[in-house]
Amino acid sequence: MKATQRDLAQVLRRSGGAIRLFFFCGQDEAGASTAVARLVADLPDAGERVDLSGAELKSDPARLVDEARSTSLFGDTRHILARVSGDDAHDAVASWCELADRGAMEGGWPVFVVATSATDKSRTAKLLLKRADALVAVFYPPDLKSVTADVRAMADAAGLRLGGNLAERIAGAVNLDVRLAQSEVDKLALYLDAAPQNPRTVEQADYDLIGARTEEDGFMPLVNAALSGELKKLPGEIARMREVSLNPVGVALALERRAAQLASLSGKMLPGEDVMGFLKAQGVFFREHREIADQLRRWSGGKMERLVPRLADLHRALLANSQIAELLLAQELTQISRFAAARR
After folding, report:
1. What's the CATH number where 74 sits?
2. Which EC number(s) does the record attach to this protein (predicted)?
3. Is the pLDDT confidence value at 242 over 80?
4. Do 323 and 258 fall within a single domain?
5. Edge to edge, what strands does the sheet with 2-4 contain?
């Protein structure tokens, strides 16, 4: 089966609960991860989460089916979450399909694969498109209108009434990242002691107190300094990150989104094609043309293939080590910038 973020709910309803493997791909990794979180929350008993990486599945393809068919130490339920890049999970998913065709995966635990930089045309996706027990969902880059609607839905669920253009402001402040938007809504609900049974109206002043920084004070100058190899500029941007309390995970997500954008653009651009003309034809925001053109030259081919999984690993490390997240991020940004600078 196949779906997009727009018709995912309808496709799931039509499936009647038959889907056991979910392959979420496309440029919006944040949207894919949010969808996984919602699906896991809707499981009758999600149980233990087993995390797998693309490197683990590539080196040991049988690991996926082993984990999907095994039980935990105490016999509890579980679900499998694999975060991979491109077709790293291809052989593992092929093994899953082979066993499922033999009936050996009946009763297996649900498997969720979030594939950064993969598409519905990838080799892994093609294994699953015609299966009734699997779903390929493509997550396209979000726009302001759709994320604003998501913010309103999040606020309603949290017992918050957003006045004026506050939902749109939140969507813009988090750079259209639905995970960060959910974090902002959660902070507002906690600050106002809101709940569905105890609704509260949010004023602009409330969000001024606890909200995310706007794009002007936001992630992209730091992201561009790192990916463009601007070693002289980077220390100042890292200092600014600390001064304005930028969220390290938010910075990592912005890096992942830009890397996914670069990977997608690189795959579409023809050899020798005029870069600026190409970016304009692809609808890239004109103010980003200079930075993106420079980054495309620096992160081509195998360099990008190594960058994307490294950023996914960074994201996981920041979540697991929140106490030293700023330090870990600063170290990784420096390494990325040095690597980019070496390509001048």
Report:
1. 3.40.50.300
2. 2.7.7.7
3. yes
4. yes
5. 2-4, 134-138, 21-25, 111-116, 78-85, 48-53
Same domain flag for 207 and 222: no
- 141: how many CB neighbours lie within 10 A of its CB? 15
Contact 61, 94 (CB under 8 A): yes
C-alpha torsion angle, residues 279, 282, 284, 288 (rounded to 10)? -10
Of 171, 194, 212, the residue at which a domain comes to its end is 212
CA 37 – CA 31 distance, rounded (Å) = 10
CA pair distance 118, 238, nearest whole angstrom: 31
Tell me, yes or no, whether 163 and 227 share the same domain. no
pTM over 0.70: no
In the chain, the number of structural domains is 3
CA 230 vs. chain centroid, Å, equals 25
* DSSP secondary structure of 169-224: HHHHHTTT-HHHHHHHHHHHHHHHT-BTTB-EEEPHHHHHHHPPPPGGGSSHHHHH
Q: How far is CA 319 from CA 28, 178, 184, 329, in A?
A: 19, 17, 17, 11
CA distances from residue 235 to 76, 217, 250 in whole angstroms, order as listed: 47, 16, 18
> What are the two backbone dihedrals, phi and then psi, of residue 200, each rounded to the nearest 5 degrees?
-135, 145
Domain hosting 203: range is: 144-212
Closest listed residue to residue 242, CA positions, set 315, 326, 329: 326
118, 138, 158 - which closes a domain? 138
Q: How far apart are CA 34 and CA 340, in angstroms?
A: 30
